[in-house]
Amino acid sequence: MKARRILLMACCLAVLSANAVLGQKVDKKRLKDISFDDVKFDIVKGAPFKRSMLTKEIEAMDGQLIRVRGYMLPSFQQSGIKKFVLVRDNMECCFGPGAAIFDCIIVEMQGSSSASFSVRPLAVEGIFTVSEFKGPDGKHLSVYAIKGRSVK
Questions:
Q1: 10 lies in a domain?
Q2: What is the pLDDT along the chain (152 residues), one digit of tens a residue?
Q3: Is residue 102 part of a domain?
Q4: Which residues constitute the domain of residue 103?
Q5: How far apart are CA 123 and CA 129, in angstroms?
Q6: How far is the C-alpha of 53 from the C-alpha of 108, rounded, in Å?
Q7: Close Cβ partners of 18 (under 8 Å, ≥ 6 residues apart)
Q8: CB of 53 closer than 8 Å to CB of 43
Q9: How far apart (Å, rounded) are the C-alpha atoms in residues 119 and 109?
Q10: How far apart are CA 71 and CA 151, in angstroms?
Q11: Does the residue 1 lie in any domain?
């Protein structure tokens, strides 16, 4: 009888612990390393973007402190860069033909932080947001942004 009561209490504690872990929210202040693969979603080439296309995992990253590696899209500025486009790789421009809208992230450095141009891969840290950016024709060019705090 005593062993049965102990077993029952252990089971109750296990269930309560599991519920506590499952109910935990994402710690939005804890740095999370992601890759461009983590922000992919299903979209037919040339189809218009709809926010409902994003996965639950991508939506959960909105507002999360992240670090992602990629390449800076070239500009005329070499240092003191406050805003730039981070792309998956340096072989394909996100604004060019064939690139997916999830293969680029618009980075806007916050406060006194800035970046210097490099042809090497960069690691950008900051707050990830789902933020739609459309071109003059009304088509989406990007759907992600980072409020950057550092570029290394």
A1: no
A2: 443 333 333 333 333 343 333 444 556 679 999 999 999 999 988 789 999 999 999 999 999 999 999 999 988 999 999 999 999 987 644 555 557 899 999 999 999 999 999 999 999 999 999 999 999 999 899 999 999 999 99
A3: yes
A4: 26-151
A5: 17
A6: 24
A7: none
A8: yes
A9: 19
A10: 11
A11: no
**From residue 126, how far is each of 10, 90, 110 by CA, in Å?**
42, 21, 9
Going by C-alpha positions, the residue among 41, 91, 93, 90 that lies closest to residue 69 is 90
Which two structure tokens, joined as six digits, stand for 20?
Answer: 């506590």
Rounded CA-CA distance 120/90 in Å is 9
Query: 67: domain CATH number?
Result: 2.40.50.870
CA–CA gap between residue 24 and residue 60 (Å, rounded)? 13
In a domain, 117, yes or no: yes
When divided into structural domains, the chain yields a total of: 1
